[in-house]
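Sample pair:
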Amino acid sequence: MFVQTKHASWFLTSVLGKVIPNLDNLEVVEEYLENLGHRHAKAGVRIEHLDLLALVYCSAVRAVVANQGKQLSPRCNIT
């Protein structure tokens, strides 16, 4: 299943708008990402249905956080 381009653009903009301003406060980022994961699970989205955009985004957020010498909670893992 692939996310439609219009939805993907909105999703990425929305998530970036929430995460980037809070990179200095990882508790806010973790809570947001955890809630986002719960909403996706509640809607029936399974990990194998996430498209490449979501995986690349999560990887990018982890890299930025790691460059700050920090690490996201294991609760925010995508496996």
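The chain has a mean pLDDT of 77.
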